[in-house]
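Recall from the previous lesson that a structure prediction takes nothing but the amino acid sequence as input. Here we apply that procedure to Enoyl-CoA hydratase/isomerase family protein from Aestuariirhabdus litorea. The sequence below is the only information supplied.
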Amino acid sequence: MQPLELPTFDTLRCELEAGNLHLWLQRPSARNAMSLKMVEELLALFERIEPRRDVRALVIRGSDGNFCAGGDIKDMASARATPAGADTDPFFELNRAFGRMITRANRLPQVVVAVLEGAVLGGGFGLACVSDVAIAVEGVQFGLPETGLGIPPAQIAPFVVKRIGLTEARRLMLLGSRFGAEEALHLGLVHYHSSADALDEQLAAVLAQVKRCAPEANATTKSLLLATETMEHEALLDYAAQQFAAAVRSDEGGEGTLAFIQKRPPSWAQ
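The prediction returns the following tokens.
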């Protein structure tokens, strides 16, 4: 497999290290608010890495101490300025573009780790909800401010409900609530609560655990977990058995079995 090559982005910064792709949202002057340009660049990045099993984890964080402060109000203003009689509704297209991006993020076969600092609002909150592992850093502020601005949290609502449940999603969205790391941990929104000083150690521990798991097995497991939301029970179990049989016969399955017998780490963990 050829080394991963990434284009130069205007709103993202990427660094590949030991099979982990570290991604920084890079609009610090706007607290990394998500512009349409950023959405398009994220989609391009996800498309590039989706087939790559040499990328074991995607670590998403924001630059300069903020994760993401939601959608970019400037894009809303630009959409409002679109002349009447346009073929498509610019507000629909703007909102739906974010939905396509977050859906793609949710389905990535890699382990998605979100490092949540500073502002995690609106669309940033939604992005946190599709991570496989989320680390909240001391001082973080989560919030769903959309209803206070006269709009619904349209594209993120399904992902928030799936993450924390309908009852809590109702409370947070309908009150436009803000809260910190402790409540996020209680809600199940995040998995770890770290001080800024201990963040590097916590992240390294998570990535070390990712390394122990076979990349194709992780990708298959994620697909099975997502299938629980759409497939009928017996059909899902048939599909799962098919995936299990294929995995046992695969190179990964053979290497995992041999490594266990020989009492050594499998090749992907070395």
